[in-house]
Amino acid sequence: MRSSITSRARPTRAAALAALAALALLTLAAAHDSAAKESGGFIVRLGRDTVAAESFVIADTVQTGMSLIRTGRGMLTRYYTLTLNAKGNLARYEMGAYPPGVEPPGGRPFVHTIWTWKGDSIQEVVHGDSTSTFLLASPASTLPFMDMGFGMWQVLTRRLAASGKDSLVVPMFFVRDTTHYQTIVKKKGADSVIITSVFGTGRAKIDARGMLVGYAAPGSTEQVTVTAQPNVDVKSLVAMFAKRPPIGPYSPSDTVRATVGGAHVWIAYSRPSARGRVIFGDVVPWNVWWRTGANAATTFVTDKDLVIAGANVPAGEYTLFTLPNPGDWKLIISRKTGEWGTDYDPAMDLARVPMGVTTLSTPMELMTIAITPMGSGAQLTVSWERTQASAMIMAK
Q: What's the pTM?
């Protein structure tokens, strides 16, 4: 009996070697798994407000992520899986958008989309209230957009770092959209990349592998600042923000209607908030044309001929831009209409006229355009933070 116990308590030399070999294999496997996987996340702020958060895990050619977006209507959570092929191009992409607290596969997603590469096109299958399928002819380098999704920007910066090139042009597309939008990623020094897309232009800070360290996009559609974090607990943030009031619309739409010397004038624009930021000279750079609002370009309509700050403006529809400078603004009246706010074409200028600039005694949180009767005409004003720029409008 004692001998039997001893034989079990003392393994043979062969068994010991086998155990060591197994342990070594497990250690190598764990090391390989650790090396192959990378995780992190991003906190996205608009001024003082946190508007989005994202976590991601990269394992070889597969990137998975979860993000939270705080919108004017509440919150939305998204889950995605991006699979790349050996060349780093799209093989499959799956994304679902859910109400806060609902996780896949439970609950029916608002949008559940699968993109699959088919050799010369992408097959998109959208499951929502109904299922639709179509093919989008695409170059092999094509990637999908994810609004407020900076894990996708990181795919671009990693691709640029791996290419050894100074710049790349990547076609990108939105859900249920048959249009490609060119996105340009371009090196700007050893640790910076400029990203120019349909959202505007932003600067990303990156490490040697192309991983995002930070991102800022003043003057763009998404005027956010992004900070990379080693760990972002999106689920905890969802629970925390669920207890707070909705953040409200980032830039609500508004209209201005006025009568100037018998002319009916109408302006449509979107109104961004200061949110604790320095606006002019920072969010709105000096000596760079500005959409004079947010989102789509600002529309100006008159049913009779006008004179604005000395320039003849025939009856019709126009787009208003401005060129801010300290103490010296210009109002840009463009003949081009219906464009997005970042799509300015100086060749379409009808006129550029001077605007007077004053300092407001009380800061204005919400950017405001107004038309105020003054004598036989009216004064057009653009006011935000502590700055007001103005130009006179007269009937012709």
A: 0.77
